[in-house]
């Protein structure tokens, strides 16, 4: 049975698995229920070695015939951006499967699970050891915890890493790093009339944000950006605010860009910590590394192979570029890695997210071929 025949014969099973797994809530740091389902699913396929590690990754290692060959990793993240802890409603209509988190990244997780089902049924033994990881904490403040733990476990042994994420019309080959901070500003505050003139934490925060947005990134290497994504605080309309919280991040596709932004931000923070009328506390809450020194030839070979496989199976030539994904970790360490997905859809990171059913079979074939071809053509 070839890949296309398997995908066609198991298509309804694949759709049902997507719906079943999507319904299980999995906010970052709280992927326990989804991880347990996946691990049990793999045990039923005959992968008794599958286990859940301390980072809540589900890891299934398939040993190769050549134990000295570099390990190849295929992964997809189990967490979603949504905080729900009760069952997610999944709707199948208008040629789509609709639910928050259905595409990013549940469908990609299911593609790996179906590939493992195929390998089990065909009793395929790879040349090099293959690690299949359904990992935690890719989204937001998950800070790539799952991928960090995985790469640490296999340090020095990884030949390449492929992450299935989002759709097959685009992919990531260049890591955009980021640093994220929570900034707290506290003042004595007071009554808006009786204590008029007292320092207002909101006013201090507004001045600080203005300074952040005066930073000129045009002369910095690569593409470097910044953003204040959350601002909250104060008590009431007639209260001089005592406490404000800001969430601030900057990103760059170059390590130097991150370092230059660190200097700019630190200079601004120092300006406000010197004030006697306000207390400023800053905490780093996220740190994603940027691109490291990766062998260009190996990266080109990996990208061309992925492009060819996706185009052969779907008729779509993906656009590979920069992004912030689980691949940030291996790419920052010089390990060849790329990211692409297995469907077409839309509404990612919204409650209107959907995947197109007519894209699922060909996308699954692309995911399976990437893995199965890799077994006989080690990088």
What this model shows, in words?
The protein contains 10 helices and 18 strands. By secondary structure, it is an alpha+beta fold. It has 2 domains: 3-176 and 290-376, Zn peptidases (Aminopeptidase, 3-Layer(aba) Sandwich); 177-288, Alpha-Beta Plaits (2-Layer Sandwich), CATH 3.30.70.360. The strands form 4 sheets. It has an 8-stranded mixed beta sheet with strand order 1-2-6-3-7-16-8-15, with helices on both faces. The radius of gyration is 23 Å and the shape is elongated.
Beta content comes to 25-35%
Gyration radius, to the nearest Å? 23 Å
For the record, what CATH class of the largest domain applies? Answer: Alpha Beta
| Overall average pLDDT | 96
Q: Can you tell me the CATH topology of the largest domain?
A: Aminopeptidase
Domain Peptidase M20 dimerisation: 177-271
Protein name: M20/M25/M40 family metallo-hydrolase
Keywords: Hydrolase, Metal-binding
Q: What's the short version?
A:
The protein has 379 residues and is α+β, with helices and mostly antiparallel strands. It has helices spanning 3-9, 11-22, 32-45, 102-122, 145-153, 201-212, 255-273, 296-314, 328-332, 360-376; strands at residues 51-52, 58-62, 71-77, 91-93, 96-98, 130-135, 158-164, 170-175, 177-186, 190-191, 224-233, 239-240, 243-252, 279-288, 319-323, 337-340, 345-346, 354-356.
């Amino acid at each position: 049975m070839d890949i296309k025949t398997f995908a066609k014969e198991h298509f309804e099973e694949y759709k049902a698995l997507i719906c079943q797994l999507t319904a299980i809530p999995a906010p970052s740091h709280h992927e326990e229920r989804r991880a347990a389902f996946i691990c049990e699913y793999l045990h039923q396929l005959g992968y008794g070695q599958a286990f859940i590690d301390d980072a809540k990754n589900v890891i299934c290692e398939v040993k190769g015939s050549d134990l000295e060959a570099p390990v190849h990793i295929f992964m997809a993240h189990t967490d979603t951006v949504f905080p729900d802890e009760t069952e997610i409603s999944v709707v199948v209509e208008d040629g789509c499967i609709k639910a928050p988190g259905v595409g990013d990244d549940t469908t990609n997780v299911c593609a790996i699970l179906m590939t493992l089902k195929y390998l089990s049924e065909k009793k395929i033994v790879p040349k090099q050891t293959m690690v299949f990881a359904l990992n935690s904490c890719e989204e937001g403040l998950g800070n790539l915890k799952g991928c960090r733990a995985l790469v640490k476990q296999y340090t020095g042994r990884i030949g390449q890493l492929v992450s299935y994420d989002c759709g097959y019309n685009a992919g990531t080959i260049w890591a955009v790093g980021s640093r994220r901070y929570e900034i707290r500003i506290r003042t004595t505050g007071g009554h808006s009339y009786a204590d008029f003139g007292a320092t207002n934490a909101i006013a201090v925060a507004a001045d600080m944000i203005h300074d952040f947005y005066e930073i000129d990134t045009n002369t910095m290497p690569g593409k470097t950006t910044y953003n204040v994504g959350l601002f909250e605080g104060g008590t009431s309309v007639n209260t001089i605010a005592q406490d404000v919280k800001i969430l601030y991040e900057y990103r760059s596709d170059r390590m130097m860009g991150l370092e230059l932004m660190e200097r700019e931000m630190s200079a601004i923070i120092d300006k406000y910590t010197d004030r006697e009328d306000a207390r400023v506390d800053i905490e780093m809450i996220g740190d994603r590394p940027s691109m490291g020194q990766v062998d260009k030839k190996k990266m080109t070979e990996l990208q061309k192979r992925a492009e060819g496989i996706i185009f052969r199976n779907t008729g779509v030539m993906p656009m590979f570029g920069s992004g912030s994904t689980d691949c940030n970790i291996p790419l920052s360490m010089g390990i060849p890695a790329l990211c692409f997905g297995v469907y077409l859809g839309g509404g990612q990171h919204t409650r209107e997210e959907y995947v197109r059913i007519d894209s699922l079979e060909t996308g699954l074939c692309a995911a399976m071929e990437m893995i199965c071809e890799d077994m006989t053509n080690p990088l």
